[in-house]
Amino acid sequence: MKKNIILWVAASAVVMLAFPWLAVTFVKGDAGMAVCFLLFFAVNPLYSVINGVYAGKDVKHLWSLPVISAVLFLIGTWIFFDMGETAFILYAAVYLVIGIMAMLISMLIRKKTQK
Q1: What separation in angstroms does the CA of 57 have from each of 37, 40, 95?
Q2: 20 to 30 A Cα–Cα from 62, which one of 28, 36, 48, 97?
Q3: Exposed / middle / buried, residue 50 (Cβ in 10 Å: 0-12, 13-18, 19+)
Q4: pTM of the predicted model, to two decimals?
Q5: Cβ(88)–Cβ(74) below 8 Å
Q6: Residue among 10, 21, 19, 9 at smallest CA distance from 79
Q7: Which residues contact 96 (CB under 8 A, 6 or more apart)?
Q8: What dihedral angle (degrees, nearest 10) is formed by the CA atoms of 37, 31, 75, 53?
Q9: Tens digit of each residue's pLDDT (9 = 90 or more) over 9-59
């Protein structure tokens, strides 16, 4: 189980830290803005859902995965974009809610199918 948590934290670090760094470093101008929109409105929410669904398999041990993902997003955006920007707190909160909702739905579906 610990191996899976480490794997998911590493994946969260790649998606929430490395992707914004890649966007800032290698994509310039208007294309950079498009990549950021793609990250903020497609990649990160989708990753939050996938992360939450996996955490729903064992909520007792994996409940922290959506939290870790949201915190890493906040750290990554504050490092690579603008430190202390409050809009990123809202994004992180939305990703956290998406992850928790996916986790709870996954947990409920798993409980219903096991009965």
Answers
A1: 30, 26, 19
A2: 36
A3: middle
A4: 0.89
A5: yes
A6: 21
A7: 48, 66, 67, 69, 70
A8: 40
A9: 999 999 999 988 888 888 888 888 888 889 989 999 999 999 999 999 988
Strand, coil or helix: 57: coil
Q: CB–CB of 98/43 below 8 Å?
A: no
Q: How far apart are CA 112 and CA 57, in angstroms?
A: 13
Distances (CA, A) of 15 to 11, 34, 47, 107, 110: 6, 17, 8, 24, 26
Measure the CA–CA gap between 66 and 5, rounded to whole angstroms: 11
Residue 73, CA distances (Å) to 43, 66, 68, 108, 114 in order: 12, 11, 9, 27, 34
Task: Check: CB of residue 8 under 8 Å from CB of residue 51.
Answer: yes
Q: 107, 56 in Cβ contact below 8 A?
A: yes
